[in-house]
Write a structure and sequence with these properties.
alpha/beta; TIM Barrel; 12 helices; binds 2-phosphoglycolic acid
Length: 253
């Protein structure tokens, strides 16, 4: 059985004191939930501090990005080993905001996934179509290409470490949520892709999260879908009470 995962992507929000307050708010507001992995992804500057506050709690920490090289002359970039060193165990890779604003390609996503896994960071790989691609009807092909290039040449052992987040670009930060039918359709396709390109075991062990305007008001319905193993939450993760409500809305297992 896959353990559900609820991750909060704080994006470019939260100073160090604010980040500490938020993670403490989650830690105190929700004591050791059973059968769920909870992850928060603060900005790089508060990664270490948040990891220290989250230590000895159920909360794991993620970075929001990683550079694809081990180290070297890359001014302003952050290596996977530094993220690990700061106490994080996960990293979000290929978020649509990075694809859109920083021109990240599927090939670059693949390099980042490899360097993350090499450094024992669990990648949360984001895929998803734009509104135009949804309307054109070729969204499944778009997502399959993101997966086939982004996860190219990974061994089955490494692939089973992945977390995939399906985030339709048109649903991120817009308040527009995909319908349960749309979500389940894509999640099923992602699972079928993993079975075909890796193995049934990999398909059964990889968590596939939904992201895009998830909040306490809609999370119960989304999280009860058979192929949805959790959520990647942006805006609604910036408030501990709201984020806790989302965790609590997971169906009992
Ligand atoms: P949102 O962001 O929940 O604010 O739509 C989700 C994400 O970008 O991961």
């Amino acid at each position: 059985m896959r353990v559900p995962l609820i991750a909060g992507n704080w994006k470019m929000n939260m100073t160090i004191p604010e980040a500490v307050e938020l993670v403490n708010g989650i830690k105190i507001g929700l004591r050791w939930p059973e059968d769920v992995d909870v992850v928060v992804a603060p900005p790089f500057t508060s990664l270490k501090m948040v990891s220290e506050v989250a230590k000895d709690s159920y909360i794991a920490v993620s970075a929001q990005n990683v550079h694809h090289e081990e180290n070297g002359a890359y001014t302003g970039e952050i290596a996977a080993s530094f993220i690990k060193d700061a106490g994080a165990n996960y990293v979000i890779i290929g978020h649509s905001e990075r694809r859109q604003h920083c021109n990240e390609t599927d090939e670059l996503v693949n390099k980042k996934v490899r360097i993350a896994l090499k450094n024992e960071l669990k990648p949360i790989v984001c895929v998803g179509e734009t509104l135009e691609q949804r309307e054109q009807g070729n969204f499944v092909e778009v997502i399959e290409k993101q997966l086939s290039v982004g996860l190219e040449d990974l061994t089955q052992v490494l692939a089973s470490e992945l977390v995939i987040a399906y985030e339709p670009v048109w649903a991120i930060g817009t308040g527009k949520v995909a319908t349960v039918t749309q979500i389940e359709e894509v999640h099923e396709k992602i699972r079928a892709f993993l079975a075909k390109n890796f193995s049934e075991d990999v398909a059964n062990s990889v968590r596939v999260l939904y992201g895009g305007s998830v909040k306490a008001e809609n999370s119960k319905e989304i999280l009860s879908l058979p192929n949805v193993d959790g959520a990647l939450v942006g805006g609604a993760s910036l408030n501990s009470a709201g984020f806790i409500e989302i965790i609590k809305s997971l169906p009992p297992r």
